[in-house]
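Quick one, probably user error.
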């Protein structure tokens, strides 16, 4: 099994991503993402017993204060993935580095090659099937500015169901001091 950690997006950017995914599906047959819209804190890694990581995750949530995140504009990884770009964010960077450092020390989980200095924080919108579909989807998305500023309040453990199946949120926790969920 594979799990990963991510910041769960609040209503406004979540609704934007899901509405956009549906629009892209209707226009270009792009399938919506298989995950809840999020910003990855720790890329997926293989585990045998998820409960070993729950206590760490709960402690992480309890030690992390909510902080502001700004999503600004559309970005891409080549012609493979379209996403909402995360503005430079020292608090998010510190959280990410803390998690990859602690996961390696406590559990022997090595950082993913795209973590640490290579990380590009983002919220995935879609994965177009071909360069032509990518170009058309990009044109559609770039016509309006897409900016959201929000307080990161919740994090989740994402659990992959295996094979070509989706991910579920196995556990969701509020960051320190967040009440009224």
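Nope, works fine. Designed sequence:
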């Amino acid at each position: 099994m594979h799990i990963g950690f991510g910041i769960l997006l609040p209503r406004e950017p979540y609704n934007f991503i899901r509405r956009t995914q549906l629009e892209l599906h209707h226009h270009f047959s792009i399938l919506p993402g298989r995950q809840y819209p999020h910003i990855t804190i720790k890329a997926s890694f293989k585990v045998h017993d998820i409960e070993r990581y729950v206590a760490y995750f709960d402690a992480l949530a309890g030690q992390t204060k909510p902080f502001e995140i700004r999503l600004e504009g559309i970005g891409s990884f080549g012609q493979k993935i379209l996403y909402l770009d995360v503005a430079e964010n020292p608090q998010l960077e510190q959280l990410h580095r803390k998690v990859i450092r602690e996961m390696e020390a406590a559990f022997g989980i090595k950082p993913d090659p795209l973590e640490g200095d290579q990380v590009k924080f983002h919220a995935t919108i879609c994965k177009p099937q071909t360069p032509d579909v990518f170009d058309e989807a990009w044109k559609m998305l770039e016509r309006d500015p897409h900016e959201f500023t929000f307080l990161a309040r919740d994090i989740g453990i994402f659990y992959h169901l295996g094979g070509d199946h989706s991910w579920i949120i196995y556990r969701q926790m509020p960051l320190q001091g967040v009440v009224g969920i």
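The beta strands are 2-8, 38-46, 67-77, 81-86, 122-126, 147-152, 154-160, 167-174.
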